[in-house]
Amino acid sequence: MAHDHKNGLEVIPRDPAKIKKIWMTALILFIITAVEFVLAFTMPRGLLLYAIFIILTIVKAYYIMMEFMHLGEEAKPLFYSIIVPIIFLVWLVIALMKEGSEIFVMRW
Amino acid sequence: MSSTAIEINSKRGVWGGGNQPLKASYGKLMMWFFLLSDIFTFGAFLITYGAIRMSYPAYEGTSAEFVSSNQYWPIPEMIFDAIPLVHGGHFPLVFVGLMTFILILSSVTMVLAVEAGHRNDRGDVVKWLLWTLLGGITFLSCQAWEWSHFIHGTDEGTMIEYVNSLNRVVSETVFGANLVVNEYGPAAFAQLFFVITGFHGFHVTIGVVLLFLAFYQAAVGIYEQRGHYEMVEKIGLYWHFVDLVWVFVFTFFYLI
């Protein structure tokens, strides 16, 4: 253990701006979830509603990954090696939902 | 030292080893790679869910008149409408909404723990890890109740015609859910519910164990001796991932 302090590590004081930003992100996540909740009961079910839900979910995922997991602060190669496969994965989810609806047409 | 000299040195460094092209520690890098592979696992689940969901007929009609049947996919708000202590009440999505808030809140306390770790503030790390641990355990308890209610079902049950385990077509009133038949909708509905929320709950359980480990090690001062709180950061990444997956499970399972 190569640190110099005999009585443990030096404690850096809190940065109120940083902590405020964390709670602001939390507030955004809560508001988006609340909006989803309200839309589930007020809008008719259908493709438009599902598209809104998926977009809002991706917005929430963006905030969790960027603000909570600090992915944006990682080196660019690491950032893209995580993000690019996920983008293709979202494509695959949507493509196979379309495929599922084709199976529905064939079956019923 | 001129800039040319630095460039030559750094080129040598690339071939000599010992450099960090991704500028992340071994542990954090491995955690990211593990999370990416776990994203693929849950991605496969969501793809399965989406494809099967769309290949079944949707329920036509208003949600107020909804009746369960295995002929069409159920409306989630009419299935997940129970809350603890109120028998037979109709509170659509209230309980699962509460679970979502609890998990997001525990993710927030986790960021605060990681932030405190950056400042080497042992007291704050221990405090916020304890809150996160509490959130995780509360979420798991809620899920246990949710599963129990889903398995035991409603008082009325639903008349379902299905092929039983002896390969006979039977018509009977079904209560609750298992992997063969359920009172809510097609068999695939309960199967996907058990597999996807079960696998997510398994992840939360592992997360709670890891959080307890971090809480204990931070409290007795192991990280302080070690000189850094990186373990809190790594477990934090895992915990946020669990929250991230729940955000998707919530949308696909309970909203769509």
Describe the structure.
The complex is a heterodimer of chains A (108) and B (256). Chain A is an all-alpha fold and 108 residues long. Chain A folds into two domains: 17-73; 75-108. In chain A, 75% of the residues lie in helices and 0% in strands. Chain A is built from three helices and no strands. The longest helix of chain A is centred in the last third of the chain and has 32 residues, at 76-107. Chain A is flat and about 70 Å long. The mean pLDDT of chain A is 87. Chain B is mainly α and 256 residues long. Chain B has a single domain (24-255), classed as Four Helix Bundle (Hemerythrin (Met), subunit A), CATH 1.20.120. In chain B, 65% of the residues lie in helices and 5% in strands. Chain B is built from eight helices and two strands. A two-stranded antiparallel ribbon of chain B has the order 1-2. In chain B, helix 6 packs antiparallel against helix 8 (230-255). The N and C termini of chain B lie far apart (62 Å). The model of chain B has no long low-confidence stretch (mean pLDDT 87). At the A-B interface, helix 1, helix 2 and helix 3 of A face helix 2, helix 4, helix 7 and helix 8 of B.
In short:
With 108 residues, chain A is an all-alpha fold.
Cα radius of gyration of chain B in angstroms = 24 Å
Shape of chain B: elongated
Radius of gyration of chain A: 21 Å
Greatest interface by residues involved: A-B, 58 and 60 residues
Instruction: Please work out how many helical segments of chain A DSSP would assign.
Output: 3
How much helix, percentage-wise, in residues of chain A?
over 70%
Q: Which H/E pattern describes the elements of chain B? A: HHHHHEEHHH
Structural class of chain A: mainly alpha
Going across the biggest sheet of chain B, name each strand in turn. 1-2
Count of extended strands of chain A: 0
Total beta strands of chain B: 2
